[in-house]
Amino acid sequence: MFPIPLGWLKRTFLLTVAVSASLYVAPVRAALSVDESLLGAMQLEPDSVQKKNVKSVLYLGGGERSPWFHLGALYALEEYKVPVDSIVATSWGAWMGALWALGVSIDDIQRLMMDPAIIDFVGTNSIHAKTEHDAFALPISVNGIPSFRQRFSFYADTAGNVYRSMHAIVPDTLSIERSLSRLRFEESLYRERGAYQIPFTLVTCDSVNVNPTYADIIASLPLPGNEMSGELCPYLALPQSRDSNDVNENPLIVVADPVRYVAEGSAEIRTIKNKVLSSLGDVAGVFIRTHSLRDSSRNAAIQAGFSAVEQSLRKIVPLLERRTDYSEKQKSKPWLTFNPVFDSVSAEHHAAVASYWNREDSGFAAPSHFAYSITAKAPYDTVSFNMQPDGDLLIGVGVHPTVDVAAGGFGSNVIGANAYGEASLYYVNQMEIYLKLAGFYGSSSFGFRPRLEITNLISRRWIFSFGYDLMKLRYLKSFEKDYVPEENRFEFEQRNDFFLSAKYALDKMQSIEVKFLFGNREFELSPSAIPRADLFDENINTDDHYETTPMTQIVRYSLLNGDENPWFALNGYAANASIGMNLIGSGYHQRGPIYGIFALDGRYSVSPVRKAALTVGASMGVDSYRDDGRFKFPKTFDNVAMEDRFRMHVAATPWLEDYLDPELSTHGYAMLRVNGTIQHRGFEAWLSFAYVHDYENKKTAKLGADKFVFEPAIRYKYRSFTVYLGVNRIVDLDTFGDLKRFKDYRYFIRIGDYSLF
After folding, report:
1. Residue 437 pLDDT > 70, yes or no?
2. Cα separation, 695 vs 518, whole angstroms
């Protein structure tokens, strides 16, 4: 019989009771609660037979739960002041362990994990991540004329062979987010300029790297492009020696997967996990592992990691003779500025790509804004970031010639149904070139409308546009018969218009544009449109065919913050001001006066509640010229139809952009309008109301100078496919009561957002 010391029995009893009575611990430091009796037991001196010079090595592995489980374990190690002499890690454990070894506080590590750029990627395996695009989704144009669209990118190899590949018509935002998350992981490590405060070793598929570089650590994470990530090797970091009598090391092995666990992921990953987990019985060390996990939430994993350390404290007691104070931790301060480097971009693309980087942006907003702005343009299909220790940000962008082919249609009860086709080319060589060849053909109209747009000729702030319209337009006979006054009817209008513009962006919201139009137009009037003597008190022009050569120069200022659509905006505000000159030539020799064009408009949209919006707008416009010291409204034709064709057209409601109502054709007006909508699953119920004051008060108008426009409508929109239908009514002060006479309303249906008139 050997005598048992009473003190030893007392200490053993207290420690056993304390460990078994450990309480539930919340997953964040503010809610952590450490059992005082357990701390008291830990402060007892270990027995002299215990290992005093053992080296404590913390092993951190990977897996989908590992970062959050590791976070809880690190919280507990700090709370109980468990010494860690070195860290061995792989995959997600490498990122967590490196930050801790560099001296970053646990609270700051948790803040990094909760960062919006990476929270959805921490713990996930995205090595073979797929695009977010659905292969079976219909390739519908995002905006413009309703159409189906196919996009092709062209690549050339070093031998000069050209290859074609399908390209998505919308940016792969998930791919962009992955690139930004990788950068955030890199940036979180490069914040720390000093050496490892705790010796750190990285285990990868093919090497053991002592004091690894930050690039080595990022390469071990299961991110796209990291084919040798720790997730593809034994995803647990384990001691190389499996001898239980090894006196030089006391391994603390953190295993995020619980004992009662069914492997998840691909067949390859499941096989790797099961093989490694089944061999843990052959490994010597203290396992920090939970028996089961109550749910799959992040908080549950953090709590499980903290509790697993508490449950293993009895085995960790030999280390507690030299408890470690972890209070001296440093703050993790993000980079304020990045220095973009585009060396990997070819010379012909360098200037265009670099122009998308906004030097005024700081911090992580700079690469984020760059990635989303450049991938919104068709020639740019991929973006990647690679951060350097000195803050240089190596940026790679895929730039390839891209062709779009689209086919669809549009129309209304005003101009009938029209088939639409388009072929577009996006090309970058020092400048960005966008060429579109588009045309339409219908039962009453047809047109060919090529467009050329050049960006980055001077800088990305400048956009130069050139266009040509060859069109023959006319209203449907049925629509004219029901809604167009006899004196305003046309057989057709034919246009040969060339126009160009130069637009300069002052900043993100403001721009100035100079526009020029050189036109040649022919008009054939209906027999009923020949002027009547009772409409003019001057010489009557009885021609039924007119040729005109309008020339217009306009300077336009624009301010936009929010939605761009002037009618269906849900938030933001906009203001526009324009001033210019117009000259309408009639025939080959006749010239009308050169008159000025002045216009102002503004709107404000707000969504007071979800799925509802209200827009309030105001505008005014005047055509006039100075003669004999007085301002006069221009007059070129003694013809009702022709005069109205060249007057300003007040677009008081969305539908009135499609129909040039003679009651709203004037040389001077002021307007107030209100638009309201309620939305549900793509359907929108709209109510538009406008008050228009006509300063010209022309003789041919049937309504008074003060007009009211009322337009209830229903709209459905999915990308470019839009359907707008409803009724419209225009009254004046004398006929305002007629708004309740629904039989006098004009019905309409319009498919697509387009502008022909």
Report:
1. yes
2. 28
